[in-house]
Amino acid sequence: MKERILKVMKAVFELENTDETISQKNCEKWDSLNHLQLVIALEEEFDISFEPEEITEMKDFQTIESIIAHKNIQR
Known about the structure:
The protein is mainly α. Helix content is 61%, strand content 0%. Helix 1 packs antiparallel against helix 2. The protein is globular. The two termini are 16 Å apart.
């Protein structure tokens, strides 16, 4: 799952490399528009839908991974 999330983040933010430390604080391309594109891309990649409160919590890789893992358990 980590690799899939990082692959999506790399594509959305148009980065050469990324790792598990990526966050809104250290990625200058992580603006509001790219945040929405990230949400859409993750929903498509994992075939899930995020709640509005989950979307606002998605500020770093660890949080995103945790939200997706929780959603996959609920299935």
